[in-house]
Specification:
The complex is a heterodimer. In chain A, 36% of the residues lie in helices and 22% in strands. By secondary structure, chain A is of the alpha/beta class. In chain A, helix 19 links the parallel strand 22 and strand 23. In chain A, helix 4 packs across helix 8, helix 6 crosses helix 8 and helix 11 runs parallel beside helix 12. Chain A is globular, with a radius of gyration of 27 Å. By secondary structure, chain B is of the alpha/beta class. Chain B has a single domain, classed as Rossmann fold (3-Layer(aba) Sandwich). Chain B is built from eleven helices and twelve strands. In chain B, the strands form two sheets. In chain B, strands 2-1-3-4-6-5-11-7 form an eight-stranded mixed beta sheet, sandwiched between helices. Chain B has a three-stranded antiparallel beta sheet with strand order 8-9-10. In chain B, helix 1 packs across helix 6, helix 3 packs across helix 4 and helix 5 runs antiparallel to helix 9. The longest helix of chain B is centred in the last third of the chain and has 16 residues. Chain B is globular. The chains are: A alpha/beta, B alpha/beta. At the A-B interface, helix 1, strand 9, helix 9, helix 11 and helix 12 of A face strand 1, strand 2, helix 2, helix 4 and helix 10 of B. Strand 9 of chain A pairs antiparallel with strand 12 of chain B.
């Protein structure tokens, strides 16, 4: 029989199961298929810090949230339309976020007495039988049993067979959203090309799940989401860390410099190292150093030698790199330091997102140690932000910190990727031997106050640099009091002058002036956009500006902010940008903060902003 | 300032003084560092090094001021991390002649981690460790190579730290060239510097260096004419281990136990002695253990100087570039458009 197909504007699905259930993969594959179907989308993977927390427990629940639709999608969404719960713990953690009337797809086999006990349900309680699921559409499928049956002929062991149950679920969802299995099959075929037995089992499980929809009459509903009205062009799906990788490679190619990436594995930055190490044929040199300090030091050494030295880390690693970054400020050499922020302090929440390293990026070094700070606002934006960080580092001879966060790093969205030829070349110049044979002055500066990049191997330019204060122009060691103050001021002015070489701040959406400005940076971009849209639609004069450049700020920032009665700064921290803005402009910006390791939800910020504009 | 070459690119023949900078050398008068600086400058000239192709990289400490006095490229970095800066530099430009200058505190205390990893990776560079068994720049605290019970400003009742054995640590890190010399023997030092430079891979040279302000005479027993013959053992590959004023003593290897034998006593002869083989890693490990006092105890062993061990192993930076080239050969030069498009794409018209 054919099931009628209903059209939906947008859907929020949460895949939730045990860390070993393969929910990240299921979510990722469904996302890939969704992207190709033309929807706009945003994702939010949320997983425990433990690789395999005890099976079946609340601590072990791993989730993948996907919001897709035929309209612009800015955030992964607040409340789920559909929850896939592979076990009792996954249901317990997530049921409170399913919207009333939403759908809950349950793996019945994950609700036996053991699973219920591990999920800490009361002895007498089974959420499948009591009123827990009242008000929801409930689809119960014995996924484990059905998967085992679908691949009963396979010679794989039970454990391996059970690993295919995520494909069974994926198959069912592909059917439900009126998709084909092609993209997923392509992926499986390439992943398991040397393991035909596993490929066959996964394929069969996928098909069985898909056909379940066709054959079981109780599942009446199938849905389709029309392609979103995105600008014409070629698209791909992109995750934040991958976009950083593409941005770094593109920038170094456009600069004509070898890319050196020194890094030490740390969540959630490691995948930058993984990806870059694959691209050796693009001239990328990767170096897994012995620690965070060696990672940044090797990158500075590479920059000293004429490569573009880059290092990537997260908050704890940035803390360790502080002294070496200070040296790079003194050496005035290009360096890009990527900080994919996570919950802190200390080890904090390694797999959760936070924007709490802004102060560390701006000020977290000994001495007067200014450097430019650039931030990424969403997965696809990482591409341009990374290119900008490289450009500034090289053209202004300075270390640059690029801030991303766990939410952007692991989130995915469609990206209208550029043609290589449309990206302008970037200029870089190395010092050459002086014709008149005069002594090379390593700290002579150009109009940007940048010194020359003089690399070892170049005849006639031998000179010494180091971390001790140096005399202006000559670079000789100097303990002269007046010279030190002059050098401190010069290094600061050099960084502040970068404002002349970056674009002015613009309003992303909403009004150019009015009652309220949402001023964001980093991964709050989506929620600022959606809240601005909602409030403008209600007739409020609200605007959204999003800062890419956190030091120096764009020249027109103060003027832009003063066009609004109120400025709200939403941040996933305890209020950091808001302090900088208040300090610099003496402007009573209002903080809005959430420090729970998760993105700010639309309704949270909406309610807060509405309350402010209503008060007038 | 030395000019590298005439306008036609032909290098001038450089002398030791051409490797000296116009900066005042600011080590304390009488410091052992002066002797090392002089020998390094001499060796640079002797080896025909070009200043612009030579880089001195250092950490922090008295010894780490060294680059400011060499008319070459120089990077005075941060405490303990010079090996990491040098690693990145060698990957960026494998053709440079790189010399890492470090001290016992810099290399073995704050930089202990990097020291080990540099040696095992085997970058093609030279690591000169100026060991004076004391912290000089911070005014006299004990260092990781200081002897036990040493009284210093931070150990008024005597140090309870057991000292590190740099040669054993280097061998334990699978270094491919391990040698020891001293500031007071310029000829030997020069010879060791030349051999360190000739070795492809990380050449580790420990140099006993006298700090005449905070630890004067720490190595006196090895450097002074009267005691030197009986306390030092000059290693020469292929030669038996002989020492003493009249070269009347030798080392006999009794199983795994080295014993001092008196050749004049009429028992064992030169032919029975341990013949040094600088490619034998196992025996190098035993030699590294000649680390106790050379004057105390019944079987007091002399301190070896020279090349303990050397072997050939591919250099790290060489392999980085081999892998890079191999990938380009098999996959072709990376195409930016392909990179940007990635795996699956779709078009919106």
């Amino acid at each position: 029989m054919t099931t009628p197909i209903q059209e939906k504007q947008a859907v929020i699905i949460k895949f939730a199961g045990d860390s070993g259930d393969g929910m990240q993969l299921t979510g990722g594959l469904f996302t890939d298929d969704t992207a190709i179907s033309g929807s706009d989308l945003a994702t939010f993977p949320d997983f425990p810090a433990e690789i395999r927390a005890p099976v079946g427990t609340i601590a072990g629940v791993s989730g993948f949230q996907l919001h897709f639709g035929s309209q612009r999608i800015y955030t992964p969404g607040d409340r789920f339309d559909v929850l896939v719960a592979m076990n009792a713990a996954a249901l317990k953690v997530n049921i409170k976020l399913v919207r009333k009337g939403g759908t809950v797809i349950i793996n019945e086999d994950g609700f036996d007495s053991k699973n219920l006990r591990l999920a800490k349900y009361d002895e007498s309680q089974n959420p499948l039988d009591d009123n827990t699921l009242e008000g929801f559409e409930v689809i119960k499928i014995p996924v484990t049993k059905m998967t085992r049956e679908a691949i009963s002929e396979s010679t794989l062991g039970t454990k391996e067979k059970d690993r295919c149950k995520n494909m069974y679920v994926l198959g069912f969802l592909l059917w439900r959203y009126n998709r084909s299995m092609d993209t997923t099959m392509k992926f499986l075929t390439s992943k398991f090309k040397n393991k035909p037995e596993i490929l066959d089992a996964n394929h069969k499980a996928l098909m069985a799940g898909y056909h379940l929809g066709d054959t079981m009459e109780e599942f009446n509903d199938r849905y389709t989401v029309k392609p979103a009205q995105l600008a014409p062009g070629k698209y791909r799906s992109i995750m934040g860390n991958d976009a950083i990788v593409l941005g770094l490679i593109t920038a170094t190619k456009k600069l004509g410099l070898p890319l050196f990436y020194g890094s030490y594995p740390i969540t959630p930055a490691s995948s930058i190292l993984h990806s870059l190490s694959k691209y050796k044929n693009y001239g990328v040199r990767t170096f897994q150093a012995e620690d965070e300090i060696a990672a940044v030091a090797s990158a500075i050494g590479a920059s000293y030698g004429g490569s573009l030295g880059i290092t990537g880390t997260s908050g704890p690693g940035l803390a360790l790199k502080g002294e070496a970054i200070g040296l790079a400020v003194m050496l005035e050499l290009p360096l890009v330091v990527i900080d994919v922020q996570r919950g802190g302090p200390s080890t904090g929440l390694p797999t959760k997102t936070e924007q709490s390293d802004l102060m560390q990026a701006l000020y977290g070094r000994n001495g007067e140690c200014p450097l430019p700070v650039v931030s990424c606002s969403k997965p696809s934006d990482c591409f341009e932000a990374a290119m900008e960080a490289c450009r500034i580092a090289v053209q202004h001879m300075t270390p640059v910190i690029l801030l991303s966060d766990g939410y952007i790093a692991n989130g995915a969205e469609p990206w209208r990727y550029p043609k290589a030829s449309d990206i302008p070349e970037m200029k870089v110049s190395f010092a050459k031997q002086q014709d008149d044979g005069s002594h090379f002055m390593p700290y002579q500066r150009d109009e940007k106050l940048a010194r020359a990049w003089a690399i070892p191997g170049t005849p006639g330019l031998v000179h010494r640099v180091g971390g001790i204060e140096k005399e202006d122009v000559t670079g000789n060691i100097s303990y002269d009091p007046a010279n030190h103050e002059h050098m401190v001021k010069t290094r600061e002015r050099k960084v502040e002058m970068i404002a002349d070489y970056i674009p002015e701040q613009k309003i992303e959406s909403g009004h150019e002036s009015g009652s309220l400005l949402l001023l964001g940076w980093g991964s709050t971009f989506g929620v600022c956009e959606s809240v601005t849209n909602s409030l403008t639609q209600l007739g409020y004069s609200v605007g959204h500006a999003h800062l890419r450049y956190l030091r120096p700020f764009p020249r027109n920032l103060e003027e832009l902010m003063r066009r609004f009665d109120k400025v709200v700064i939403p941040e996933i921290n305890n209020g950091q940008l808001v302090k900088v803005i208040r300090d610099k402009y003496l402007l009573p910006a209002v903080p809005f903060n959430k420090i729970q390791g998760t993105p700010i939800a639309h309704e949270e910020l909406f309610d807060f902003a509405l309350n402010l504009v209503d008060k007038g | 300032m030395a000019i590298d070459s005439n306008p036609n690119g032909v290098p001038y023949t450089l002398k030791a003084k051409d490797f000296a900078t116009d900066q005042d050398v600011r080590w304390c008068p009488g410091c052992g560092d002066y002797s090392i600086l002089k020998q390094v400058q001499t060796v640079m000239a002797d080896l025909g090094k070009q200043p612009h192709e030579t880089v001195f990289v250092s950490g922090i400490g008295c010894s780490s001021r060294f680059p400011y006095y060499m008319e070459t490229y120089g990077l005075h970095s941060i405490h303990g991390r010079a090996p990491a800066f040098a690693s990145g530099l060698k990957i960026a430009n494998p053709n440079l002649s790189v010399w890492v200058i470090t001290g016992d505190g810099d290399a073995l205390s704050i930089g202990g981690n990097h020291f080990m990893h540099l040696l095992r990776r085997n970058f093609d560079l030279n690591l000169l460790l100026f060991n004076n068994q004391i912290y000089g720049l911070t005014k006299g605290q004990y260092s990781p190579t200081s002897e036990e019970h040493k009284k210093t400003p931070s150990t008024p009742y005597g140090s309870i730290d057991h000292p590190v054995n740099p040669i054993a640590l280097a061998l334990g890190s699978d270094a491919t060239f391990v040698a020891r010399s001293m500031d007071r023997d310029p000829k030997h030092l020069k010879d060791m510097l030349v051999r360190a430079d000739a070795h492809r891979g990380t050449s580790f040279l420990e140099i006993y260096q006298n700090c005449n302000i905070f630890n004067d005479g720490a190595f006196e027993v090895f450097t002074e004419k009267d005691s030197k013959p009986d306390t030092t053992l000059l290693l020469e590959s292929g030669q038996p281990l002989v020492f003493g004023k009249e070269r009347e003593k030798g080392i006999y290897l009794d199983g795994f136990t080295p014993r001092v034998v008196d050749l004049a006593a009429g028992g064992l002869t030169k032919d029975d002695l341990w013949v040094h083989d600088d490619t034998d890693q196992l025996k190098a490990n035993i030699l590294a253990r000649f680390f106790d006092s050379p004057t105390e105890g019944a079987n007091a062993l002399p301190r070896p100087f020279g090349v303990f061990y050397q072997t050939d192993r591919p250099c790290y930076e060489e392999q980085v570039h081999q892998q890079l080239n191999a990938t380009i050969s098999s996959l072709g030069e990376g195409d930016l458009d392909k990179l940007l498009a990635g795996g699956s794409t779709w078009e919106i018209k």
